[in-house]
Write a structure and sequence with these properties.
The chain has 121 residues and is α+β, with helices and mostly antiparallel strands. The chain contains 4 helices and 4 strands; from the N terminus they run αααββαββ. Strand 3 and strand 4 form a beta hairpin. The radius of gyration is 16 Å and the shape is globular.
């Protein structure tokens, strides 16, 4: 009985971990683009939450009073900052993730693709 409970716990934990990164995908990028095309933009805070929270993304936005956040949010599975992403790139790894462009607190476009060092600019 203890083995079954332990196995069930491990499975639940694995599902939770996988679900937290589930939106770092091409399908999530498509959802953001479809919403933007319909003028039903995802908000900056919604994108951050959907991608796992501030501690799971490279948030390259600036916040302007009254206007809101503008810039780029980059999320790569297994990375929690731009430094983590850059370290993988520098090590010669192919790094894929989602790049979300935000303007005035609205996600205006998204793309799931290979990330390069020039994405920080």
């Amino acid at each position: 009985m203890k083995k079954i409970v332990s196995l069930a716990l491990v499975i639940v934990m694995l599902v939770c971990v996988l679900a937290s990164c589930g939106n770092i995908s091409e399908s999530y990028a498509k959802k953001i683009n479809e919403a933007a095309a319909n003028k039903e933009h995802y908000t900056y805070s919604q994108v951050i939450e959907d991608l796992g929270g501030k501690e799971k993304v490279a948030d390259l936005t600036i916040s302007v009073p009254v206007v809101g956040a503008s810039g780029t949010v980059i999320a790569v599975k297994g990375c929690s900052s731009w430094d983590d992403i850059k370290a993988k790139i520098d090590a010669g790894e192919t790094v894929k993730g989602i790049v979300v462009v935000v303007a005035a607190d609205k996600a205006i476009s998204a793309e799931y693709r290979e990330i390069s060092a020039s994405d920080k600019k």
